[in-house]
Design a protein that fits this description.
The chain is about 0% helix and about 40% strand. A hairpin with an 8-residue loop joins strand 2 and strand 3. It has about 70 residues and is mainly β. The protein has one domain.
Length: about 70
């Protein structure tokens, strides 16, 4: 999983009725776009995340294919 500053991190709800949690990646702390990421969520909360399998990165700009 790779991201750049400005991409969205989406944590999908784990149970029925739980909404997705969406945040903007404000800092990439790993090398070459790898986690961890500092994320600012819609409610203003900021945290450091190492995304799991229930997480998706939505890129704001196209990333080159490797």
């Amino acid at each position: 999983m790779r991201a750049t500053k400005g991409d969205q991190l989406v944590q999908h709800g784990r149970v029925v009725g739980q909404h997705d949690k969406v945040g903007e990646i404000v800092e990439v702390m790993g090398e070459k776009g790898n986690p961890p990421y500092r994320v600012r969520f819609e409610d203003g909360h900021e945290g450091v995340c190492s995304p799991g399998p229930d997480t998706e990165i939505r890129h704001t700009t196209p990333h080159p294919q490797h």
